[in-house]
Design brief:
About 10% of the residues lie in helices and about 40% in strands. It is mainly beta. It has one domain. The strands form four sheets. It has a nine-stranded parallel β-sheet with strand order 1-2-4-9-12-15-18-21-24, with no helix packed on it. It has a nine-stranded parallel β-sheet with strand order 3-7-10-13-16-19-22-25-27.
Length: about 350
């Protein structure tokens, strides 16, 4: 028996000696300190320790946590593919215990993958902003939510490139949170779970105009199973801004698609707001209807939406169509507006006749 225990002890010791070390987290702060050059992520002098954040040859055994703190006038910029990092906190420092202000811009060929925690404006009193004009951002972990404005002020502004997350994306989920996401032009947004607008805090999702440019696509949320893929709370606002291209070709207007083979549908809490606006310089067409959201589930969607304050309900209307699984918005000019447009046309004819 003693011999068997000795053998077992030797085996356990051998396993301990050859087992890989437990993952350690190295926290690196942006300092833009002495020797810093501009706002480039790829410049070592811009980081604490004067070295660009990097996972070594051991890969994920070294977890790099990044804290971005800087001003809006001097954003951190990524213009090329950089090493994957484990955690990203924008607008926080000291291991995510101190509120601050942070601004990160991804453009050109910029490429950033975050493997775990992601929070922009997570702490009360903090501000965190991610701007994407090109390149790509990926939240890779399937059990880590991208939190924007959890308890502080957070923003995502994407006008080009792609933003993808393999888990939820929450806007304003904490009690003191205030979050905004603006999607425009050539943006591509893909959420592999729930897109939530307004939890206990305030959330605003702005769908700004039609799809335009290479890579432009609808906003997709595709949670597995026949469950909610889009959730909008009582403090959440969904805003659509209609540009000239959306009137000229209604099918080009960017929409939210809840795509999943097993279902997926929206849920609107009582008090959720729908806001609609015309882009500057638009000449609206008469009686235009856009499909702004589609889903695949047979679950009936309750109409708990209400237009935001200031929306002219004589001009705008919306419809939640459970039969065809879509939400539409319709613009119909008021009769007085059409009379003015008609008078304008008469004036043009009269001027032509006088000539």
């Amino acid at each position: 028996m003693r011999g068997e225990l000795q053998t077992l002890g030797i085996a356990v010791l051998a396993c301990a000696l050859i087992a890989p070390p437990a993952a350690a987290t190295t926290v690196i702060d942006w300092d833009g300190g002495p020797g810093a050059t501009g706002g480039a992520w790829e410049t070592g002098a811009n980081w604490e320790g004067d070295a660009v954040p990097s996972n070594d040859a051991m890969g994920d055994s070294i977890n790099v946590g990044i804290h971005v703190n800087n001003s809006a006038a001097s954003p951190v910029t990524i213009t090329s593919a950089v090493d994957d990092i484990q955690k990203l906190y924008i607008g926080a420092g000291d291991n995510n215990s101190t509120a601050g202000e942070g601004h990160l811009t991804i453009s050109g060929a910029g490429d950033l993958t975050v493997k775990a925690d992601m929070s922009f404006g997570g702490l009360s009193g903090s501000t965190g902003v991610l701007k994407i004009t090109g390149g790509s951002f990926l939240g890779e972990k399937s059990n880590k939510t991208l939190q924007v404005g959890l308890n502080g002020t957070g923003e995502i502004d994407i006008s080009g490139g792609s933003l993808s997350t393999n888990q939820h994306l929450y806007l304003g989920d904490g009690a003191t949170g205030d979050a905004t996401m603006i999607v425009s032009d050539a943006a591509d947004v893909d959420v592999s779970a729930v897109l939530r607008v307004g939890g206990s805090g305030t959330g605003l999702l702005v769908v700004d105009g039609s799809k335009s440019g290479t890579g432009a696509d609808d906003i997709e949320a595709k949670r597995g199973g026949d469950r909610t893929s889009y959730e909008q709370g009582a403090n959440g606002t969904l805003r659509f801004i209609f540009d000239q291209a959306a009137f000229d070709t209604p099918a080009n207007m960017r929409k939210i698609t809840l795509t999943n083979g097993n279902g997926g549908y929206p849920e609107f809490t009582s008090g959720a707001k729908l806001d609609v606006q015309l882009d500057g310089g638009v000449t609206p067409a008469e009686n235009t209807t856009w499909t702004v959201m589609t889903w695949t589930s047979n679950t009936a969607v309750a109409d708990n939406l209400a237009f935001a304050a200031g929306v002219d309900t004589n001009t705008w209307s919306y419809n939640i169509d459970n039969t065809n699984k879509k939400m539409t918005i319709t613009y119909v000019p008021e009769p007085a507006t059409m009379v003015l447009l008609g008078l304008g046309g008469v004036g043009i004819v009269l001027r032509r006749r006088r000539r």
